[in-house]
Amino acid sequence: MLTVSGQLSVETFACAVGDVYTFGPTFRAEESHTSRHLAEFWMIEPEIAFAELTDVMDCAEDYTKYCVRYILENNADDIDFFNTWQDKELKDRLNNIVAAPFARVTYTEAIEILETHLKEKKTKFLVKPFWGMDMGSEHERYLAEKVFMKPTICYNYPKTFKAFYMKANPDGKTVQSMDMLVPGIGELIGGSAREENLEKLDAAIKEKGLELEPYWWYRELRQYGTNPHGGFGLGFERLVMMCSGIENIRDVIPFPRYPKKAEF
After folding, report:
1. Which of 12, 233, 236, 258 stands 20 to 30 A from 51 (CA)?
2. Distance (Å, rounded) from C-alpha 2 to C-alpha 73?
3. Per-residue pLDDT tens for 52-97?
4. Which residues pair with 154 in a beta bridge?
């Protein structure tokens, strides 16, 4: 079996021993032929015990800034090379990441911004934005590059296209999820607070048309006592893209695997 994520399993460790993380290969069967998608990529997934959504967002921002700051301080020659030959705005963009707090906006606010800018003819989109849609790369990049002009954390997405394990908000329409959107790429990180209430978790599983039985072990984390926890997944290759200015994800991994292309 090829894993999509280690998250469900690592929640067991987070509930037992506290803050943990995984780093390993991730596989996606979706037919995505873009410069940002692979069928196999590597993902870093921290899981934080006794955490709410704000803690998840804080950790994601701190982690991203730490990585960029480390590279700027320890790989200055490499950054100069990429800044000269690949992307002449790279160094300024990376310095901007560590210089100021990231923008934060709810999904509802983000859609309102996109709709307003479209109505005022400030931009054009291939897909017209509306509340309830899963924003595409064009919408995510517009928010990060044109509206806020820095990494932007969008949170409280509609539950309709999010996973069953995400903690429900009181409004009954959204869940406590977050995506970090960065200039040049779009989504870099996705995460959420996890639903720790067994009754609500079971209802969400059924709502997604799934069976309870395969998740018996995951449900037991709630059944016999748990704690509020949350985490996120960061695509390692997209992090490399952001830090190097490389535009195609197939150029930042030794043996890129994508639909109908897996020679090694």
Report:
1. 236
2. 37
3. 999 999 999 999 999 999 999 999 999 999 999 999 999 999 999 9
4. 105, 179
The alpha carbon of 203 is separated from its chain's Cα centroid by a whole number of angstroms, namely: 25
Give residue 39's identity as a one-letter amino acid code. A
* Start-to-end CA span in the chain (Å): 18
DSSP state of 167: P
- Report angle CA 149, 180, 56 to the nearest 5 degrees: 130
Q: What are phi and psi of 259, to 5 degrees?
A: -50, 125
Measure the CA–CA gap between 138 and 147, rounded to whole angstroms: 12
For residue 210, give both structure tokens: 């799934």
- Region of 121 (left: φ > 0; alpha: ψ -120 to 50; beta: rest) is left
Beta-sheet strand order (sheet of 20-27): 20-27, 40-49, 229-235, 186-193, 174-182, 152-158, 103-106
Query: How far is Cα 250 from Cα 237, in angstroms, rounded to an integer?
Result: 9
